[in-house]
Design goal:
The protein is mainly alpha-helical. The protein contains ten helices and seven strands. The protein has one domain. The two termini are 24 Å apart.
């Protein structure tokens, strides 16, 4: 979230969910009642583990397209040669849902909804995924999950008695997953993810203009209005201008 792309039939992280500035996490201790969880005690491994666990919970709650389905085959064809980023292994799946949505998590999880694939050609779907992967590569997704864990009451309670991510309930993991899928990134983060997507498309030998077209497709699907991600910051005109500037610099 591309957010991140969410239009109800959505909640797409790419562009659908609104973008708004997020508060920076604090390095001070968080009081827990029976104990104190300090920012310095939360390891990178725990953040990645939480992302993976939240992703697994999302997979359980959604219908995953089987490997022999047309959606899964199409996705596999689009993502050939894109198995990792910055040392993080990427894993792709399609959710069979009318939602026009896509998201990625800090552990390398990349999920695309069939509804998005139904309204976009491959180059635009790939652009959306590159935007989401950009949030991972640029650690936006990591920072969002880290902040969530540092402020999540359930995890604070578990951590206060020496517990781990594995001690969280399915319901608690579901809440983490919901927060990750619907994460709202800052204007700067969204611009950076758009720029990353354009450069990545170019590097992959694909048309970088597909990033612009993906946003325009979403605009048309929302009836030309400002719903969903279209009402977020930065504005669509700003995003398109930033994307064009990046293309011109290639």
């Amino acid at each position: 979230m591309l957010r991140r792309i969410f239009i109800p039939v959505i909640a797409s992280t790419f562009i659908l969910s609104g973008c708004q500035n997020t508060e920076q996490y604090t390095q001070s201790a968080l009081t827990l009642g029976q104990g104190v969880l300090q920012a310095t005690t939360l390891s990178e491994g725990q953040v990645i583990e939480a992302s993976a666990a939240a992703a697994a919970e999302m997979d359980k709650k959604n219908k995953v397209a089987p490997a022999n389905s047309s959606y899964a085959k199409r996705l596999a064809n689009m993502t050939k040669g894109q198995s990792s980023i910055n040392g993080i292994t990427l894993n792709y799946k399609v959710y069979l849902s009318e939602q026009i949505n896509a998201f990625a998590m800090a552990d390398g999880t990349v999920r695309v909804y069939s509804g998005l694939m139904d309204v976009m050609p491959d180059d635009q779907v790939l652009a959306v995924m590159q935007h989401e992967i950009g949030h991972v590569a640029l650690r936006h997704s990591y920072n969002q999950m880290r902040e969530r864990l540092l402020t999540d009451t359930a995890f604070q309670t578990v951590a206060s008695v020496g517990g781990t991510i594995g001690d969280l309930t399915q319901s608690q993991l579901g809440q983490l997953a919901h927060a990750a899928v619907n994460a709202r990134f800052s204007q700067s983060d969204e611009h950076e993810a758009d720029t990353y997507a354009v450069k990545s498309l170019k590097k992959l030998g694909r048309d970088p203009y597909a990033m612009k077209r993906s946003i325009q497709t979403l605009q048309s699907k929302s009836g030309g209005g400002d719903g969903g991600f279209l009402s977020s910051h930065p504005s669509n005109s700003d995003r398109l201008a930033n994307i064009q500037k990046t293309i011109d610099s290639l």
